[in-house]
Amino acid sequence: ILNVEQSPQSLHVQEGDSTNFTCSFPSSNFYALHWYRWETAKSPEALFVMTLNGDEKKKGRISATLNTKEGYSYLYIKGSQPEDSATYLCAFSHGQNFVFGPGTRLSVLP
Amino acid sequence: DAGVTQSPTHLIKTRGQHVTLRCSPISGHKSVSWYQQVLGQGPQFIFQYYEKEERGRGNFPDRFSARQFPNYSSELNVNALLLGDSALYLCASSAVQTSVVTDTQYFGPGTRLTVL
Question: What is the pLDDT of residue B1?
């Protein structure tokens, strides 16, 4: 059974703080690593799809890195804002299956 | 453009009953995936369909089945419902411009199923 882990489970930061989360996944049979943001009462929103070792992606204040050899990805948020409050999910795809982590719940306090 | 739509929004069933959930992908998307999300956990992959064929299946019992229609919409069927089937069921579509596993998936709002 493939296991995708995310840490921390939850995080409370002050507005303006920068923060980062970790996603750990199996390093074998890697196809892609997806990051999603899921706000309460909304649909999960795709942030990044990463496929190459050493990949770095950026979208506004959010960026992500990928290390497929050691099986981890970091998601960074610079200068957190209250609207960044959400659950951040990573999903590991291998072959034709997707395995999601449990998510990191971020709360940004004004 | 309309996003991924799912129906119904909420559903209450009793144990042993059957349920059908429906999903309409974004126009032009040919792949649909189904996920089950239980509170406190990440979504669990159930099925992926591409061009009306099953391309992937998660670790779910045979009570779960799905199909994709010529217009690329999809149905998820669950027979002999158990209390543990209570969950949010999410549908996601992708355009499959490169690969079914590397393309961005766009999620619908989900169907909340409660089994009593």
Answer: 60
